[in-house]
Design goal:
This protein is α+β, with helices and mostly antiparallel strands and 92 residues long. The protein contains 3 helices and 7 strands. It has one domain (16-90).
C-alpha cells in the first residue's frame, strides 16, 4: 500500500514527504515556478536530472533525492518551494 493517495498529474504536492515519495518510486515531475518550466527525470544510470525547459545549460545531475532538494531555483531551494510549484506532469 502506498503512503500517499494518487493525484492527478497537475495537482500540487502537499509537502516534502509526498514529493520525496513520488521521486523515490521512480516518478518524474514537470512543474512551473515563477513563470518558468522545470523538469525532474531519472537518467539511465539512475541519477536525478533537474533542468529548465529550453535551457540545456541548466541541466544538473544528482545522485540522491536529498542532494536534489538542496538545488536552488533562483534564491530558493527546491525543498523550500515544493508546495508553491505548479505541477503540469507527475507520474507515480
Amino acid at each position: 500500500m502506498y503512503k500517499f493517495q494518487f493525484k492527478n498529474r497537475d495537482e500540487p504536492f502537499d509537502g516534502i514527504e509526498e514529493f520525496v515519495d513520488n521521486l523515490s518510486r521512480g516518478g518524474e515531475i514537470g512543474f512551473v515556478y515563477n513563470g518558468k518550466k522545470y523538469g525532474i527525470i531519472r537518467t539511465e544510470a539512475g541519477d536525478l536530472c533537474f533542468y529548465g525547459y529550453y535551457c540545456e545549460e541548466s541541466e544538473k545531475l544528482f545522485s540522491s533525492i536529498e542532494e536534489l532538494l538542496e538545488c536552488q531555483i533562483g534564491e530558493k531551494k527546491i525543498k523550500d518551494i515544493i508546495t508553491l510549484i505548479q505541477p503540469f506532469f507527475r507520474c507515480f
